[in-house]
Specification:
Blueprint (H helix, E strand, L loop, with lengths): L1 H14 L5 H18 L7 E8 L3 H12 L3 E5 L6 H9 L5 E6 L11 E6 L4 H25 L20 H23 L1 H7 L3 H6 L4 H29 L9 H25 L3 H17 L15 H5 L2 H15 L3 H30 L2
Parallel strand pairs: 1-2, 1-3
Antiparallel strand pairs: 3-4
């Protein structure tokens, strides 16, 4: 029961900081909404230039199709003098691609003109996607033309996309952002808890109280765990209602994963708080750790793309497993039988971090 007084003291400490309350309870909602619109991999309205130097009706048809698709934003249609002017347009960054239709030379099937596509390779991802869109438009025209002439197209592709048929990137990124915000706020708030007591010279009072060291440790961690669960609930409700992300799995599994994950991140934050000497140092180490955790979590890039020399850091990164489990639940609707290995690895990491943090905390209070 003594720990309840410490919990009350911690919540009072949080609630009396008026400038901190918006950061704890309002900022997560705003951040999820903003990040949901910004952190997307969907690429639409790619700026391109279409130059029709052909008299072919096929070229005119293809130009109209390119202009009609929402994937492209045709900035300008003109007749530059030559290849050097195309390069200059790309160099100035006015467009991501230049599509040039030229008169055919020799006999070409279906009256197709010569098509030249010049891409700006600085943004390789956008260039590759734009080239794929343009190839798809031409391929679709050829398929229709072959069918119109009563022939069979030599190749027929049929794509069947499971779990995210509309290929909405928000469906993939949204659940991951819940784990991201859960990590950020709990890590920052917890990492300054013990060092703040030392700066305010109230740590000695806690040590002289009847509270045992484990009770002080839990009293610092449990309030942040409760706040973290509230933030996770707010994040889940936001991505479901605001971005219309379907939930195919059981949210109780998500709650279980959060309960396994939170001790790991809270213990790591308390470990930072006992190693540093000021709140500024705690915030610096928390920021450095957060950036490393996020970049190696698979949130923005697949874990398989991480170099093998750094893969071991990703393998002990608890955020990686949380995000992976969240996506399994949201997108695939998988039960625990599909991700129990990730959950066990996460539990093992949690046990290791909690043990290390407790040992360091005992050393800290014995000094």
């Amino acid at each position: 029961m003594r720990i309840l007084y410490l919990l009350k003291k911690e919540f009072t400490e949080i609630l009396r900081q008026k400038e901190l309350l918006p950061l704890v309870f309002i900022a997560p909602l705003i951040q999820i909404v903003i990040l949901g619109y910004v952190v997307r991999t969907d690429i639409t309205r790619i700026p391109i230039q279409v130059v029709n130097r052909s008299q072919s009706p096929v070229a005119l048809e293809l130009c109209n199709r390119i202009e009609a698709t929402p994937c492209f934003q045709v900035r300008k249609t003109g007749r530059p003098g030559g290849t050097d002017s195309y390069r200059e347009v790309l160099k100035r960054g006015e467009v991501a691609a230049v599509v040039v239709f030229r008169d055919k030379t020799g006999r070409r099937p279906f009256g197709l003109p010569r098509i030249q596509i010049l891409m700006d390779g600085v943004d390789s991802n956008t260039s590759a996607i734009a080239a794929g869109y343009l190839s798809g438009i031409i391929r679709q025209y050829l398929r229709e033309e072959v069918s119109r002439r009563g022939m069979n197209f030599p190749l027929d592709f049929q794509n069947l996309i499971r779990f995210n048929p509309d290929l909405r990137s928000i469906n993939y990124m949204g659940p991951g952002m819940v784990g991201l915000l859960l990590t950020i706020l709990t890590l920052f708030l917890t990492s300054v808890s013990i060092v703040r007591e030392r700066e305010q010279q109230t740590m000695d009072t806690l040590l002289m109280s009847p509270l045992r060291p484990i009770e002080i440790y839990l009293g610092k961690a449990l309030p942040m765990a409760i706040i973290g669960l509230i933030q996770m609930a707010v994040g889940v409700v936001t991505v479901i209602l605001w971005f219309r992300i379907p939930v195919r799995g059981n949210l109780w599994y998500l709650c279980l994963s959060g309960l396994v994950f939170l001790p790991a991140i809270l213990s790591y934050a308390l470990l930072i708080s006992t190693l540093v000497r000021s709140q500024q140092q705690a915030l610096f180490f928390s920021w450095f750790s957060m950036i490393t955790f996020i970049l190696l979590s698979g949130l923005f890039t697949p874990v398989a793309n991480i170099p093998s020399s750094l893969r071991w850091i990703a393998d002990i990164n608890p955020i990686r497993y949380l995000i992976q489990i969240i996506r399994e639940i949201f997108l695939k609707g998988n039960g625990i039988e599909y991700f129990y290995r990730d959950l066990l690895i996460l539990a093992g990491i949690t046990a290791g971090v909690v043990t290390l943090s407790l040992l360091n905390f005992r050393r800290f209070i014995s000094r």
